[in-house]
Each structure stands twice: as C-alpha cells, then as structure tokens.
Amino acid sequence: MHATWRRVTATFVAVLALAALVACSSGDGTLARLRSEPVWTLEVPGTTVQDVVTRDGGSSLGQRVVAKAAKTLVPGDGTTTTDVVAALTASAEDSGWTDPTATDGSVTWTKVVDGVTWSLYVGEQDDGVRLSLDAS
C-alpha cells in the first residue's frame, strides 16, 4: 500500500511540475525569468541576500545584466551594524569585488561582470545596513 501511495504521489508531483513548466513557457518571459542565474550571491551570518545581480535570460551573447532593488539588512539580536558591514566586506572581497573606497561608515567596491562594470555600495544607516548595486 505504501509503495503504491508513493508512486501515485510521485506521478502527481511530476504532472504538476510538467503543468508548471508548460504554464511558464507561455511566451510572457516567465520561463526566461526562472532561468535567471545568480552572478553573485552574498551570505551574511543571520541573513542571506541572493540573486542581487542576475542575468535576464537573454541570449548568451550580449546578455543584458540587471540589478534587483537595493536592500537594507537589519542586524539580528546580538549583532551590530558594524558586524554586518565587516561580514559584507569579507564576503565582497572573497567574491572578487575590488578597489574598495571607504567613506564615513560606507564602502564601495567595483567588479566587471560580462563586460559591465558594477559598483557595490555598503553603508550604515539608522535602520540597518544599506546594500545597493549600480551598473556603468
């Protein structure tokens, strides 16, 4: 009985997955958005900011690079904004961001991804730590 139930459940899940794939390929770009891959993933203890920079699913040549909205990271209990900035600094340096410029509690780095120069800004604010990206 359990084996039959597992087969029925597996079949049902497979049908749902196929239906979702068909629905996503309906020409509105949803499938392309699902295929977006992260260029850089930033991990900070107690918080994770993912897909900060993604590709928009265009052709492999001349893919347009887009940035998602800037984020504010609010430190958890027992963590200060200084701790978060230090963790962001370590993560950025480990991920290939270069040329840090520090000014009054903020740091800006640069990185070239697929020919596009990005600036990563990290700065302390009243409500937490601001993280944003700009392309040039």
Keywords, please?
elongated; 2 domains; 31% helix; three-stranded antiparallel beta sheet; five-stranded antiparallel beta sheet
Could you please describe the fold and organization of this structure?
The chain has 136 residues and is α+β, with helices and mostly antiparallel strands. The protein has 2 domains: 1-34; 36-135, no CATH class. The protein contains 3 helices and 8 strands; from the N terminus they run ααββββαββββ. The chain has a 5-stranded antiparallel β-sheet, covered by helices on one side. A 3-stranded antiparallel β-sheet has the order 1-2-3, covered by helices on one side. Strand 1 and strand 2 form a beta hairpin. Residues 1-69 have low confidence and may be disordered.
What's the number of helices?
Answer: 3
Task: Write down the Rg.
Answer: 20 Å
Q: How many domains comprise the coordinates?
A: 2
Instruction: Let me know the average pLDDT.
Output: 58
Number of strands: 8
Proportion of residues in helical segments:
25-40%
- End-to-end gap: 61 Å
- The main sheet orders its strands as 4-8-7-6-5
How many strands, what sense, and barrel or not for the largest sheet? 5 strands, antiparallel
How are helices and strands ordered from N to C? HHEEEEHEEEE
| Class based on secondary structure composition and strand pairing | alpha+beta
Shape: elongated
Which regions contain 5 or more consecutive residues with pLDDT less than 50?
1-69
